[in-house]
Amino acid sequence: MEHGGLVMVCDDTEPIRRLIRLNLELEGYDVEEATDGSQLLARLQERADSGLPLPGAITLDAQMLPRDGWWAIARIRSDPRLADIPVIMVTASVQQHDRTQATASGLDAFVAKPFDPEYLMRLVAGFVTGGRAHTPAP
């Protein structure tokens, strides 16, 4: 089933970006990549400033340099133009404190690496068609 729309993939590991991109493209999505949180935020803000369509979902790694996923999600959720974009953290950081931080930060889903690409595609499709699972914090 082809879905369509833009999904942004942010991960500092090229093979992970490639794996996610390939699966998204097979599902009919357009994909834009970023290698860290600051690059992702700059691309999102550029789209918002120029009136280009925002992504229907974002996949985001937690640990990246120089700006990590936690930094990026805090800025995404604090920008009213970006706050409603569903964000799925795809990360090897799966300790309890990471899961607690994920909930507190307003992430929509938390997926542990290694991950099942089919499961990730179902999550993306649900968010792209249904929007955010959580309401942004006031």
TrEMBL record:
Domain of life, per lineage: Bacteria
Entry-linked Pfam families: Response_reg
Sites bearing 4-aspartylphosphate, chain numbering: D61
Gene3D superfamilies (alphabetical): 3.40.50.2300
Span of domain Response regulatory: 6-128
PANTHER family reported for this sequence: REGULATORY PROTEIN, STRESS RESPONSE REGULATOR PROTEIN 1
GO biological process entries: phosphorelay signal transduction system
Keywords, ordered alphabetically: Phosphoprotein
Protein name per Swiss-Prot or TrEMBL: Response regulator
